[in-house]
Amino acid sequence: MTQTNVADGIALARLPLAQTAPLQYVLRLADNALILGQRNAEWCGHGPVLEEDIALANISLDLIGQARLLYSHAGALEGRLTGRVRHEDDYAYWRSEPEFRNWTLQELPHHGPLAGTARADRDYAVTIMRNFLYSALMAELWPALELSTDTDLAAIAAKSAKEVRYHLHHAADWVVRLGDGTDASHARMQRALDHLLPYMNECFAVDTVEQEVAAQGVGVLTSSLREAWETTVAGTLDDATLQRPAPSAFVSTGKHGVHSEHMSYLLAELQGLARAHPGAQW
Amino acid sequence: MRTHPTPMTSPFAPTFARCDDATPAECPVLPADRLSVAWAALEAVPDPEIPVVSIRDLGILRDVVLADDGQTVEAIITPTYSGCPAMSQIEEDVGRALEAAGLSPWRVRTVLAPAWTTDWITEAGRASLRAFGIAPPGQCASQAPRVGNVRPLRFVPRQPRAPAMAPPDVPPVACPRCGSVHTQELSRFASTACKALYRCLDCREPFDYFKPY
Known about the structure:
CATH superfamily of the largest domain in chain B: Fe-S cluster assembly (FSCA)
Strand order of the largest sheet of chain B: 4-7-6-5
Radius of gyration of chain B: 21 Å
Order of helices and strands of chain A: HHHHHHHHHHHH
Number of strands of chain A: 0
Order of helices and strands of chain B: HEEHEHEEEE
Number of helices of chain A: 12
Mean pLDDT of chain B: 78
Number of domains of chain A: 1
Number of helices of chain B: 3
Shape of chain B: elongated
Radius of gyration of chain A: 18 Å
Helix content of chain A: 55-70%
Number of strands of chain B: 7
Largest interface: A-B, 47 and 41 residues
Low-confidence stretches of chain A: none
Mean pLDDT of chain A: 93
Distance between the termini of chain A: 23 Å
Low-confidence stretches of chain B: 1-19, 21-25, 142-153, 159-167
Largest sheet of chain A: none
CATH topology of the largest domain in chain B: GMP Synthetase, Chain A, domain 3
Largest sheet of chain B: 4 strands, mixed
Oligomer: heterodimer
Number of domains of chain B: 2
CATH class of chain A: Mainly Alpha
Strand content of chain B: 15-25%
Distance between the termini of chain B: 19 Å
């Protein structure tokens, strides 16, 4: 982290929430897209079949594209607050772990709860279930954000809404195919659901940033989309013969900058090249 | 067309030089002709990934206008998908075409709204795609009437239940080789994010389908 970033961070922290909430909100959306894009890209060259390898790479491309647009917009928003416009790469490569505000769900490895912190074996069931749970929510959130009073955010949302529809269809097809598949694939999908569903609590947990952007008309309360999300999820899980685990009180804290033990390993891989060669062009 | 209310600088950070400060003497095209010459120059710019189609026929080139100074030619382009890796290449190609046509000063502006849709692909573009072996996109799902009984391959439970998620309205996709609509989706994602992989059940050939978007 550079001295400039520290100074800007301190300056931002002194501003009232009404001014900084839109920036914080856009960064959460951007971080969600980037971190899941990075995770899914881990399958590139390792997909279970060629079509899935390509599908996941394409989904990552969409997610990283969304992240780039959102970071560029965040840079402009931050520029209006601090007088210093930040570049998309500044956010992706030069922030430290607590500055990332993605939901914890996005950063988890493609593996069950006992995965090690470094690279573990990958379970496609976890990949598919996470993409399904996240896409089913974003398929509601992006269209809602098309009505944002922030016209740049609304434009990004309109593009992302089209993309996430394909991501959702892809993931939902596989949830059904694997859930209603063999005993082995069913068991793995059920384990993935049991593991990941509690992390969705964070997405629906209201906090002051969301309340502020919702009041300004810039963002929406994700909790207001819960019912629509539940309908999509319940229908697909039913088709897939999967059982929802009992509700959990666990709420993860990634969007507040407190991440799981897996995040620093992900960032090391994501940021290592840029940090080894600062300012490199290609 | 509606341009973006607050024009964003390109989110894809073009790195090529601009000819913003050229004097009129360095700009050989007569001011009155600048727009028509620019359109003619840009008609020929192909899409880098599907070179049989121009960026104009794909709907990526949205407009060519003169900037407020009455001199600078401004080409307005829009990305297909958020993460389309061809975008910076397209910006460069547009700039090169304007430069080659002697149109300095010029600039390329990227807009996001209204969001690109495959409905903007022209008839000529669709014909070129088909001839190239790519089935052109149908109307966007939200507007398309349900036609025929050809459905993409969708995995459904073995015990039929009420559909949880209504399957998308999908009109039949005609095989670009034999014209048969007896086709089947193999994968929703193909060689690029904007295409799906299909196969023809009559001529047995696999083909790319440009997804309605």
